[in-house]
Write a sequence for this structure.
């Protein structure tokens, strides 16, 4: 089973993936963590190389991570917050990658809520609690405001993450067992 979580920063993708993975005997792969391992600080990389170079490198690292999954191995791949929002011409293969990701049975968009204001408020609150981000409320508000409609309109199942992580994990385990039948 290959599961992919997509959504904005602060939606709970990594938290849910790390709790779900051991329960379904899956490896948890996080694209942001892999980027940090391979290239270092994401903000610094963008400052030095530009967002287009970051997007291209992130697409290449996504393909590496996806390719690292062994046949028969269960995995959860957590995509970066902006991964689904790149311009389709960012990379020659990006449009096909995005299409495949959205069409696979175990791809999920994680959002705190489909109510835009509620989602934005929760995302901003969560992001501001992460001291390592070196961000501010205005920056996070603008980012999620621009991206909310993109994520809410993606053609794959949505998982609302305003509940406790363990409840979301239980919901996903039930959903996954139903899909396997």
């Amino acid at each position: 089973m290959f599961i992919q979580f997509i959504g904005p920063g602060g939606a709970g993708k990594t938290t849910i993936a790390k709790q779900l993975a051991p329960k379904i005997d899956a490896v948890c792969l996080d694209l942001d963590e892999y980027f940090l391992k391979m290239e270092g600080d994401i903000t610094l990389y963008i400052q030095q190389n530009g967002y287009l170079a970051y997007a291209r490198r992130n697409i290449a690292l996504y393909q590496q991570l996806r390719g690292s999954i062994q046949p028969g191995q269960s995995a959860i791949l957590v995509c970066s917050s902006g991964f689904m929002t790149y311009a389709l011409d960012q990379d020659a293969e990006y449009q096909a990658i995005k299409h495949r990701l959205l069409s696979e049975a175990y791809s999920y968009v994680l959002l705190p809520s489909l109510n835009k204001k509620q989602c934005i408020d929760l995302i901003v609150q969560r992001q501001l609690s992460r001291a390592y981000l070196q961000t501010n409320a205005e920056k996070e508000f603008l980012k999620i405001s621009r991206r909310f409609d993109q994520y809410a309109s993606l053609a794959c199942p949505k998982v609302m993450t305003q509940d406790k992580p363990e409840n979301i994990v239980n919901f996903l385990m039930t959903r996954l067992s139903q899909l396997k039948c």
The radius of gyration is 16 Å. The first strand starts at residue 2 and ends at 6.
